[in-house]
Amino acid sequence: MTADLVRLEGVHTHIGQYHILQGVDLVVPEGELTVLLGRNGAGKTTCLRTIMGLWQPSAGRLTWRGREIGGWATPDIARLGIAYVPESMGIFADLTVAENMVLAARAGRPDPRRLDWIFGFFPALRKFWDFPAGVLSGGQKQMLSIARAVIEPRDLILVDEPTKGIAPAIIEAMIGAFRELKRGGTTILLVEQNFRFAASLGDGVAVMDDGRIVHAGRMADLAADAALQTRLLGLSLDQHQ
């Protein structure tokens, strides 16, 4: 039996006057890659940011290995071994690639073996190691954002739409990196609009609509059911290029 790493039970999140999450029930099993799908504005990013403590839940229960963490500050949540890759990438454009990576390493200096492992998936980071991160292409910035999150082993990585606007070759490198992370025991919660990418990686899947989880199950089952895809997402995987 796979243990639950993160569990949301009836979680509500308000941002100002807006009620974004409206009773989310979500389980993220340890050691798996769970994909969070849904139309734009469904609440997927808010769900990640609530887990990370960037936005606070207004009701419900949020637990990490059975321990309540709802309302914790983001640095305390990060110290549990959780990293977040935002859609905005969150890199420091005026700092070099090397400086970005050093800042992400809690020990203050990246492990050379870990760096070599990262360079194996994202060789451009080695090439531009001493360049300001702001000169990187969009795909290279996304590489850096993911690399910063995994510069040290993490128990959970929250990733928000990593393939948005990214070239196919870089997407293939991401697939390899995420698969290797899973093999190493890292749990991943991935928000993604590229359904083919999601289906190639996902163990489990949850679909959000209007601030709630409207479907949860195995990704293989959703990938095999075009009618269910169309009902939940408005477009089947076979139609989506």
UniProtKB/TrEMBL annotation:
InterPro entries: AAA+_ATPase, ABC_transporter-like_ATP-bd, ABC_transporter-like_CS, BCAA_Transport_ATP-bd_LivF, P-loop_NTPase. Pfam families: ABC_tran. PROSITE patterns: ABC_TRANSPORTER_1, ABC_TRANSPORTER_2. GO terms for biological process: L-amino acid transport. Residues 6-235 form the ABC transporter domain. Keywords: Amino-acid transport, ATP-binding, Nucleotide-binding, Transport. It comes from the Bacteria. Gene3D superfamilies: P-loop containing nucleotide triphosphate hydrolases. One of its GO terms (molecular function) is branched-chain amino acid transmembrane transporter activity. SUPFAM superfamilies: P-loop containing nucleoside triphosphate hydrolases. Belongs to the ABC transporter superfamily. This is ABC transporter ATP-binding protein. It comes from Prosthecodimorpha hirschii.
